[in-house]
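Form 12-C: Joint structure prediction
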Amino acid sequence: MTTQVIVLNGGSSSGKSGIARCLQAVLPGPWLALSIDTLVEAMPVSMQASGTGIEFAADGGVSVGPGFRSLQKAWQAGIAEMVRAGARVIIDDVFLGGASTQGDWRRALAGLDVLWVGVRCDVKVAEGREIARGDRVRGMAASQAEPVHQGVAYDLEVDTTHTEALACALAIAAKVD
Amino acid sequence: MTTQVIVLNGGSSSGKSGIARCLQAVLPGPWLALSIDTLVEAMPVSMQASGTGIEFAADGGVSVGPGFRSLQKAWQAGIAEMVRAGARVIIDDVFLGGASTQGDWRRALAGLDVLWVGVRCDVKVAEGREIARGDRVRGMAASQAEPVHQGVAYDLEVDTTHTEALACALAIAAKVD
Amino acid sequence: MTTQVIVLNGGSSSGKSGIARCLQAVLPGPWLALSIDTLVEAMPVSMQASGTGIEFAADGGVSVGPGFRSLQKAWQAGIAEMVRAGARVIIDDVFLGGASTQGDWRRALAGLDVLWVGVRCDVKVAEGREIARGDRVRGMAASQAEPVHQGVAYDLEVDTTHTEALACALAIAAKVD
Amino acid sequence: MTTQVIVLNGGSSSGKSGIARCLQAVLPGPWLALSIDTLVEAMPVSMQASGTGIEFAADGGVSVGPGFRSLQKAWQAGIAEMVRAGARVIIDDVFLGGASTQGDWRRALAGLDVLWVGVRCDVKVAEGREIARGDRVRGMAASQAEPVHQGVAYDLEVDTTHTEALACALAIAAKVD
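Section 2 - Result
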């Protein structure tokens, strides 16, 4: 069977998007890379600061309302359809709901060949990278590092603490059929 | 019937994305805004300079290869599915193939209630705005202004030459059921 | 005498940076364009949310603390020195203190040939453009439109309400010696 | 004596800007961070593709013309003046001319207390990070890694190959008076 979808799950600043770009560079054939940030940017600006959308608290906490969840389900269904229509897709996500978010993706991606990848990073290191990038609310890395992996099952886990994004991508690519 | 999709078609620097953001602000309920730029950014960097992807020539010409077209079809199918799954979507596109691109979208969006909007702008004005924004290859506005509308049928046309994005958005919103 | 500095002053979303890029395209010889945004981006992230730096309130109000003002004075002195060292510079600023900010610039630019340009825009139009660009806090355009011009003297004023950035730039360029 | 300027020199993708942001976070008091990218962005778009400005070749080579060098000297003089006017500044640069570029900075910064820092990174690792970030021409990291350090004297060298940006910043901060 041929791998059709690669799902990268990890906390903020764990290095997912760098791995996604490296995967696009090392995998044979074109893969689309779509992330939770793509979805957030597609939403109305107003949803980013209201109870119905997504909120980034000053301490790095992220909460999403019913409006966000409903658009997210449609987004997941749409990405699954892109795959059924022939595109191979790398999904770069933050499972804010842990196992429950994985359940949502499982339902959306039913019947497709998915490689589930956990992207881990020592929380102190992720916090340092959050400072170095300078474009994220301080505290997101710390508050997401553990909860996003709770109860989630993976085919493969990588850890960016001491391993470069390209090396992680090569390890993942070795599991792609 | 309820409008589910708004398709904005126009050349580079005609003002589509500004109208899309204004529509998100004035329409009741949340609408996702997805553009051809979203798709290009999701592609591998390497496709942006190869015969199979999309190429931006020094004179502003844009050409796409078979790899691009194939991902684009999957992208179109996926957006249609997002709508079927309940999201309302504003599509901001450049019909490089004119009527033929509209045909592709019609097939993908079959059965959905679509509002087709042409976004026009005097070519001299669009060229000036291309200089003012500074992030587009010079010449794209001029080379796309006319061809993208060739043979395309609209429910409504707006012209940003003398009309602000917000006013265009209000005119479009008045046609949304 | 030869114009060495062009200062563009106007409220948020009045169109200053588009005019600056058009000036760079139409003026003979290279001009550097430096804006208040360049300075803010050079500051520590932490200053953007503390009493000593710059704060963007939810209603669009902007307040700056003593730490900001002190770095701003050094910034102004430095830009003046770039000009004395031979660079021609377009400064794109928001005179939050009106005449008092102009006084600061006058002292910094003493002895240089400066063209002072006011960039105006009808407040309703600027508010619409603020929505269309989507990357500014709502309300900045409205709260800055008038105060930034209070007591400020210009060599030339342009109004982007009905005039494109390129046409404004050409009018300014005609005054550059 | 009090350190007034920190100069970070290293090739593309060696990690300079991440270190600069971490320095801003860990050093007491506000420091401005200005990079060669800030200068390039301030230049006319046209200079980025002409013989007089800066050119990024398809293989990652970077060449600068006389127009670039002349604006760069003015830029260096201006930054030195910002420091004399009281700002503390982190300069993040790529010494394309090696020792000769350091000589230019020495002349500009004469009389100021400067901490010279070399930022190194194993070339294979830097190449991988260039792929991971996705916004740089492939090959820049490799072609700049060694030449930018040729004949340059440092107070301190850091190596990002196995050390995080934050840890490098703490090592540098320990040398700041």
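Section 3 - Comments
The mean pLDDT of chain A is 94. Strands of chain A lie at 5-9, 32-35, 54-56, 62-64, 89-93, 114-120, 156-159.
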